Amino acid sequence: xxxxxxxxxxxxxxxxxxxxxxxxxxxxxxxxxxxxxxxxxxxxxxxxxxxxxxxxxxxxxxxxxxxxxxxxxxxxxxxxxxxxxxxxxxxxxxxxxxxxxxxxxxxxxxxxxxxxxxxxxxxxxxxxxxxxxxxxxxxxxxxxxxxxxxxxxxxxxxxxxxxxxxxxxxxxxxxxxxxxxxxxxxxxxxxxxxxxxxxxxxxxxxxxxxxxxx
Length: 214
Known about the structure:
There is one protein chain. The chain is α+β, with helices and mostly antiparallel strands and about 210 residues long. It folds into two domains: about 1-35; about 40-210, no CATH class. It contains five helices and ten strands. It has helices spanning about 1-35, 45-55, 105-120, 125-135, 180-185, and strands at about 40, 65-70, 75-80, 85-90, 95-105, 145-155, 155-160, 170-175, 195-200, 205-210. A hairpin with an 8-residue loop joins β4 (about 85-90) and β5. The longest helix has about 35 residues, at about 1-35. It is globular. The N and C termini lie far apart (about 65 Å). The model is unreliable at about 1-35 (pLDDT under 50).
């Protein structure tokens, strides 16, 4: 009797084990299928707006202003905003993806840079002109600590459901005009990945770089 009972218990255990495997396999298949995203090209003004908003903090996106190049190559205001963020769309005429969101106090600095670039000025010329103007008090750099959020990647494709851009990641910039390593305690060159450091120290464009870990 004991032998029969032991055989029945063992059979039950084996049956349970063999039944559990297909469930796990199905769960694995469902998980793998969920990870497959059908990315679409960013090929409309609506897509440009949606992906630009991804640069801003999630709770700020609904009320952020959006500007940038439209699909026709014109620099426009897509919509006005009511909070402190201005989002700038990816330029559809350039390879890859690069959108950003910055504090509205940085708009004079950003707008001046765009205007000088439109005039055909080089990066160095733009830097030098804004440096002179900032030192003379002609260019408002905003308050120290104003931030720029950059959302960028190699591919200009996005998920229409979430607006996530394929392979994109974030980099953050905190502007600290004329700050130095001595005044902040930050290194003036990158030391390790994802470690904050001060770029363009001592200039109008001094800013804390916070890059993704590589």
